[in-house]
Amino acid sequence: MDVELMSGITYRDETFNIQGGTNNSRGNEKLKEDLTLLLTQEKGKFYPDPEFGSNLHRFMFEPITDALSREIRYEITELVGKYYPQLKIRNIDIYSGENTLQVTIQYSYSDSKNAEDEIKLALFNQIGS
């Protein structure tokens, strides 16, 4: 997919990546980096925007029930809607393994019916590793 899309978590003319540095990615690659940062960053830890980030890490030790799946889907949908209103969530698959929460998000661009993609996230428990 070749979609030119400006996105980013920008503060003082720098765009942050998941490792805490800056980068110059563009288009779909940049969007995937931004979504990964948004959903894996613990809420309240990004000082320019204390509301930035998710609470997905809270669900790592929970058994995946229908209620928990709905809560995770709601969290992801609300965050993406707030920070990336140009995206439409198509599907969210949730898996849990030993000390891992895995999420696959399929999305499309609201102004294009053909531009679809997905992002896969894996959150790991580092306690006791």
Q: Which descriptors apply to this entry?
A:
single chain, 26% strand, alpha+beta, 5 strands, 129 residues, two-stranded antiparallel ribbon
What is the architecture at the second tier of CATH? Roll
Q: Output the radius of gyration.
A: 15 Å
Give the helix tally: 2
The average pLDDT score comes to 76
Q: Major sheet, described briefly? A: 3 strands, antiparallel
Structural class label: alpha+beta
Form type: globular
Low-confidence stretches: 1-19
Strand order of the largest sheet: 3-4-5
Assign the CATH class. Alpha Beta
Our estimate of the beta-strand percent is 25-35%
Question: What would you say this structure looks like, in words?
Answer:
There is one protein chain. With 129 residues, the chain is an alpha+beta fold. The protein has a single domain, classed as Nuclear Transport Factor 2, Chain: A (Roll). It is 25% helix and 26% strand. The chain contains two helices and five strands. The strands form two sheets. Strands 3-4-5 form a three-stranded antiparallel beta sheet, with helices on one face. The chain has a two-stranded antiparallel ribbon with strand order 1-2. A hairpin with a 6-residue loop joins strand 4 and strand 5. It is globular. The relative contact order is 0.15.
